[in-house]
């Protein structure tokens, strides 16, 4: 068999030059570690939906037209306390800070090194919707409307006065009478304007001689609240700004096309801005920053932290299991082989430019377990320590079995390539690559490690590595009797169970 002959030659070479093989493998693992440390976590839309799918394209069109996903700043507290007090001015200031629209020559809140200055300088925000901006815009719009009406009425009053004066002159009335008639016509036009103004003031709860202002509680209350639904219930059409009587919402919509780093930076600046003392609310619960960009950043941070934590836990568990159940002298060699396989796999992943996703993190314990399994199966079939001839003979017996198991496992994971979710497809590809790497490392690195560590002339490092397994086995020795008892109990239960009878009958 050509494949068996090739495997035999590889094993013979690894057993003949173990130090060279281990040195090469160590260099490769060091490089892979450097590459793996540069993996960038990602929770982007492209990991959940394919770029050619209708969902992804619709999402991209939405982002291009309306901006990226919004960072949501939930303002918690009684709504009356938020909009009918000086808190409204603080909300307006915060929204101006988050928008990055700094008037020329004005000093940003927090100084030139604060988050407001950074947002104004980097401009990652496309638009901000918030209660302060909304109410201030309403005030400005009503005032502009009043001014436009006043200007129109002024021009209309002047035309009416001119027409009345001309008519009185044609009628031959004296000059004083002409002016009196012109003044009366002018006052009639202004009376109509006063009537319209009174109707507007009555609509918004203003006094007879008052205009809308941001600091007028009567105006703001009439604008925001719906008396028919309750004194503290906001109007239904403003639900995107006032979701409930105890909260308000600021939407910070980012610009489309931001990189992951720019989006992460913008999220951090928003979080820093809401923590500034200048925007702290009085008699309210404060701010909560959330939204899709915030969730994505938190997920990526969790991925980064969980990868190291998951690796440490998996290594400790595997070491304990090997010490408990594996009876060979160099019982920790499979764990070392598995760690090398995991390192090389994630290094290849970084070299290919693949992002680190939740599915990629889930590959780690699965691949670690498979690599340990291949190394155990191989180590249990070769002599201790292996020589070139004995290792080659054992490889001819062991490798086809392990190769068949690896191929069957890889074929099972290849089914994941049929998934429409890119993250699931990446999970399958990474596992298939990892299975191949684990098999190759078990064949070469496993043989070399056993040949080097098992030699009689091993140095201090080799003796220490071999002794570590013995020490761990000694610590786990008290657990062996309970484990054996549980195994015997499980075997007896299985032999007498109806399930086994069904399989035997089948």
Q: Your description of this structure?
A:
It is built from 18 helices and 4 strands. The chain has helices at residues 2-16, 18-37, 54-66, 79-83, 87-99, 115-122, 131-170, 175-203, 217-224, 260-274, 292-325, 333-351, 358-379, 388-414, 422-453, 460-476, 480-496, 498-505, and strands spanning 70-76, 125-129, 247-254, 286-291. A 4-stranded antiparallel beta sheet has the order 2-3-1-4. The protein is rod-shaped.
In short:
With 506 residues, this protein is mostly helical.
The overall pLDDT average reads 77
- What is the helical fraction, as a range of percent? 55-70%
**Gap from first CA to last CA:** 36 Å
Low-confidence stretches: 456-476, 489-495, 497-506
CATH topology of one domain: Multidrug efflux transporter AcrB transmembrane fold
Q: Count of DSSP E strands?
A: 4
- So how many helices? 18
**Element string (H = helix, E = strand):** HHHEHHHEHHHEHEHHHHHHHH
Q: In CATH's first tier, which class of one domain applies? A: Mainly Alpha
Give the strand content: 5-15%
Largest sheet: 4 strands, antiparallel
Kindly report the spatial arrangement of strands forming the biggest sheet.
2-3-1-4
CATH architecture of one domain: Up-down Bundle
Structural class category: mainly alpha
Gyration radius (Cα, Å) is 38 Å
CATH superfamily of one domain: Multidrug efflux transporter AcrB transmembrane domain
Shape: rod-shaped
Summary keywords:
mainly alpha, Multidrug efflux transporter AcrB transmembrane fold, 4-stranded antiparallel β-sheet, 18 helices, 4 strands
């Amino acid at each position: 068999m050509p494949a068996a002959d090739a495997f035999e030659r590889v094993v013979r070479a690894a057993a003949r030059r173990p130090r060279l093989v281990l040195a090469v493998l160590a260099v490769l693992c060091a490089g892979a570690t450097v590459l793996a440390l540069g993996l960038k976590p990602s929770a982007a839309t492209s990991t959940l939906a394919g770029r050619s799918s209708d969902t992804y394209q619709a999402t991209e069109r939405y982002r291009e037209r309306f901006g990226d996903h919004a960072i949501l700043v939930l303002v918690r507290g009684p709504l009356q306390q938020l909009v009918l007090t000086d808190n409204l001015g603080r909300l307006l200031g915060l929204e101006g800070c988050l928008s990055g629209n700094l008037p020329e020559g004005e000093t940003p809140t927090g100084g030139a090194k604060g988050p407001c200055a950074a947002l104004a300088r980097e401009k990652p925000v496309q638009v901000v919707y918030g209660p302060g901006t909304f109410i201030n815009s309403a005030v400005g719009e009503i005032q502009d409307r009043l001014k436009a009406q006043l200007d129109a009425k002024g021009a209309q009053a002047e035309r009416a006065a001119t027409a009345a004066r001309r008519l009185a002159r044609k009628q031959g009335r004296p000059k004083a009478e002409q002016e009196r008639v012109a003044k009366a016509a002018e006052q009639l036009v202004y009376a109509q304007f006063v009537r319209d103004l009174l109707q507007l003031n009555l609509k918004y709860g203003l006094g007879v001689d008052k205009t809308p202002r941001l600091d007028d509680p009567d105006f703001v209350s009439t604008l925001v609240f719906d008396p028919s639904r309750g004194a503290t219930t906001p109007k239904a059409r403003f639900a995107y700004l006032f979701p409930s009587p105890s909260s308000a919402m600021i939407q910070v919509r980012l610009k489309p096309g931001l990189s992951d780093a720019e989006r992460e930076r913008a999220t951090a600046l928003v979080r820093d801005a809401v923590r500034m003392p200048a925007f702290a609310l009085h008699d309210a619960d404060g701010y909560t920053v959330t939204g899709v960009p915030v969730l994505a950043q938190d997920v990526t941070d969790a991925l980064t932290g969980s990868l190291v934590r998951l690796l440490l836990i998996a290594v400790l568990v595997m070491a304990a299991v090997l010490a408990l159940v594996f009876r060979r002298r160099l019982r920790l060699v499979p764990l070392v082989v598995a760690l090398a396989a995991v390192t090389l796999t994630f290094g290849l992943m970084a070299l290919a430019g693949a992002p680190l996703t939740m599915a990629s993190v889930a590959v780690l314990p699965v691949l670690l377990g498979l690599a340990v399994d291949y190394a155990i199966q191989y180590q249990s079939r070769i002599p201790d320590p292996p020589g070139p001839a004995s290792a080659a003979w054992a490889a001819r017996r062991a490798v086809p079995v392990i190769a068949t198991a690896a191929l069957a496992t890889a074929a099972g994971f290849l089914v994941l390539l049929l998934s429409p979710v890119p993250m699931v497809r990446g999970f399958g590809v990474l596992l298939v690559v990892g299975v191949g790497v684990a098999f190759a490392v078990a064949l070469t690195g496993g043989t070399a490690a056993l040949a080097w560590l098992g030699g009689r002339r091993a140095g201090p490092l080799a003796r220490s590595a071999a002794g570590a397994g013995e020490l761990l086995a000694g610590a786990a020795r008290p657990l062996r009797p309970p484990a054996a008892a549980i195994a015997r109990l499980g075997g007896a239960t299985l032999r007498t169970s109806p399930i086994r009878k069904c399989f035997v009958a089948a």
